UniProtKB/TrEMBL annotation:
It comes from Novosphingobium arvoryzae. It comes from the Bacteria. The keyword Transmembrane applies. The chain crosses the membrane at residues 20-41, 107-129, 136-152, 194-218, 230-249, 261-279, 285-306, 342-363, 375-404, 425-444. This is AcrB/AcrD/AcrF family protein. Keywords: Membrane, Transmembrane, Transmembrane helix.
Length: 592
């Protein structure tokens, strides 16, 4: 179990991982080919990311993160980072001379997520290579490829930021393996600073890494420079990344991004930790209290500069928006809101990895023993985060990959020793159930007949409505503001030149409120909202989940009337050719 002293990324490791990565890429592309060919992106965030990159390449300022066709006329300031836009834009610019703009974009939507997958595989394999043995890399990569909460973020067309967050977490985990305490802290902090620049969703993960480094420093005074290096990197790299991606154009204290208030808190904590590390070794209690004071200073500074952030980035959402939109975003909900098969994959796999990490800790000696203890603590904390916020399960699965790979290999060796075929088959099936616990539950669900009259799940926006087929007719109309359900807003922006009131993004809370309020309101009240918003058209997609939610909430509201074919007098039907699943009306009165 001793650490293998190797170059950071040996050529042999890179070649091995690269070959497996190519095979996995071919499998992913083959299984996703229909979606790739049709350019059906996984969800609205991917579509809006594509729109954001298009705007950048069309000449919008690098530091200007507004989506001017959302919430017109002022537009919506996005909280997304240009760090994620850069590889997408770079690949397109590199391929345009060969493929042209359209095919270059299409290729980038496939290549960039696969490159992100390759980076995640290489970083996870490096841990296995250094800390266990070189042959474990194959088990590690296989388990990464089978972890559905993880691979859902690393598949072709998945250009949202979650895949890069996984890479940042694995890079930070590699940083913890550095031999010196300060270097371990600095490398981990730098990786997580970039990760938090991409999205502040990584703040709890960064806190876990900081807690692990703090625990090291409390247990061993020789490790007291670790927290200082960690906080220094968070502050320095965080400020540099902020200035590089925002300049000085937006100095507001946003609660949903690594804004100046958070950077100030990290800087104050870094200064305090640096002073603490420079002192002679202190008693255990003093070290613990000192590190606790550093964390408290960070929190006090942030709340002093941005007291409105005390409740988190979604605290300001009004009850209507929270009920109809935020509460239906499953990735942000606790695991008990998920289906049993999904819960099993999110939690059971990381728990098996935690078992492996504890066994590695107990079986190791010296520095590796300390590292595997830290690893187990970090994984346990991430599992708890995944229980509370489902999207964190991707990080838990990524961190669990190496110890789970070791544990699976140990189980496999034991099963191979069985002489009788029946126990051997049973053992292999048990291992498969641990690695893919959702599969038996899915199979059981398919065998269980649904009760009579049970409605089938409603499809996503892109499957329910063929906006691309309607695009020629829509683009033949003069550019205008379309009052549409929030879930089809990004696709409308991607396929047409029109504007929308809101999309499923919280930076325009009043626009979100107005869309929801209008669709559940009586026709006269809805008309007032539509007119105030300057919308020329009203559009719906009857097969959309969102449409059904409005209909059930307000059986006599605007959406319910439109679905029933009882449009109010102030809406004039506009015929769309073909079977697009869309319905469009022009606003007769109050036209803008």
């Amino acid at each position: 179990m001793g650490e293998r002293r190797r170059p950071p990324f040996p050529a042999e490791l890179t070649v091995r991982v690269g070959l497996v990565w190519l095979i996995v890429c071919m499998i992913y592309v083959a299984t996703k080919w229909s979606a790739i060919a049709a350019l059906n992106l996984p969800d609205a965030d991917d579509t809006l990311r594509m729109v954001q990159v298009r705007d950048l390449l069309a000449g919008q300022g690098f530091w200007d993160l507004h989506q001017y066709r959302i919430d017109p006329p002022q537009g919506m300031l996005m909280h997304w980072s240009r760090l994620v836009d850069l590889p997408l834009a770079g690949v397109q610019l590199a391929l345009r001379p060969l493929l042209g703009p359209a095919l270059a974009e299409h290729a980038a939507l496939v290549l960039v997520p696969l490159l992100t997958l390759g980076a995640a595989m290489l970083l996870a394999a490096r841990l296995a290579w250094r800390l266990v043995d070189e042959n474990l890399i194959y088990f590690t990569i296989l388990l990464l490829a089978l972890a559905t909460p993880l691979t859902a973020q690393l598949q072709p067309l998945r250009i949202d930021h979650h895949g890069w967050q996984v890479v940042a977490v694995l890079a930070a985990l590699n940083g913890l393996t550095a031999r010196t305490a300060w270097r371990a802290g600095w490398l981990s902090g730098a990786a997580l600073a970039l990760g938090m620049t991409i999205s502040l969703e990584l703040l709890p993960i960064a806190a876990l890494f900081g807690a692990v480094l703090g625990l090291r420093a409390v247990i061993d005074p020789a490790m007291r420079s670790g927290p200082a290096g960690f906080l220094q990197a968070l502050a320095i790299v965080g400020v540099a990344a902020f200035l590089g991606t925002h300049g000085l154009t937006d100095m507001a204290s946003h609660c949903d991004s690594l804004s100046p208030a958070y950077l100030a808190g990290l800087t104050v904590a870094a200064l305090a930790a640096t002073v603490l590390a420079a002192l002679p070794p202190l008693p255990v209690l003093a070290r613990a209290l000192g590190l606790g004071a550093c964390a408290a200073l960070a929190g006090i500074t942030i709340l002093a500069l941005a007291p409105h952030c005390a409740g988190g980035p979604f605290a300001a959402l009004d009850p209507l928006v929270r009920s109809f939109w935020y509460s239906n975003v499953h990735e942000g909900m606790p695991v008990w809101y998920q289906k049993p098969a999904v819960i099993a994959q999110m939690i059971a796999v990381p728990l098996a990895g935690l078992y492996g990490a504890v066994r590695l800790w107990l079986a190791s000696q010296g520095w590796p023993r300390r590292f595997w203890f830290d690893y187990a603590v970090l994984l346990a904390g991430t599992i708890l985060l995944a229980v509370v916020v489902a999207r964190s399960s991707a990080f838990a699965c990524a961190i669990a990959a190496v110890p789970l790979a070791w544990q699976v290999r140990e189980w496999h060796r034991r099963v191979r020793g069985f002489k009788r075929p029946l126990p051997r088959v049973a053992g292999l099936l048990a291992i498969a159930a641990v690695v893919m616990p959702g599969v038996p539950l899915i199979a059981l669900g398919k065998l269980t007949a649904a009760p009579a009259g049970t409605a089938a799940p409603m499809p996503s926006a892109q499957l329910a409505c063929d906006i691309r087929a309607a695009a020629p007719a829509l683009n033949a109309l003069a550019p205008a503001t379309v009052f549409a359900p929030i879930d089809i807003g990004p696709v409308l922006l991607a396929e047409t030149h029109h504007r929308v009131i809101a999309t499923a993004h919280h930076r325009a809370p009043q626009a979100l409120h107005d869309v929801i309020a209008a669709f559940i309101a009586q026709p006269d009240a809805a008309r007032a909202i539509v007119t105030r918003r300057g919308a020329r058209y009203v559009m719906i997609c009857p097969g959309l989940i969102e449409a059904g939610n409005y209909q059930r909430a307000a059986p006599d509201g605007l959406m319910a009337r439109l679905l029933a074919g009882r449009a109010p007098e102030w809406l004039r039907p506009v015929m769309l050719p073909g079977k697009t699943g869309l319905q469009l009306w022009e606003v007769e009165a109050g036209r803008n």
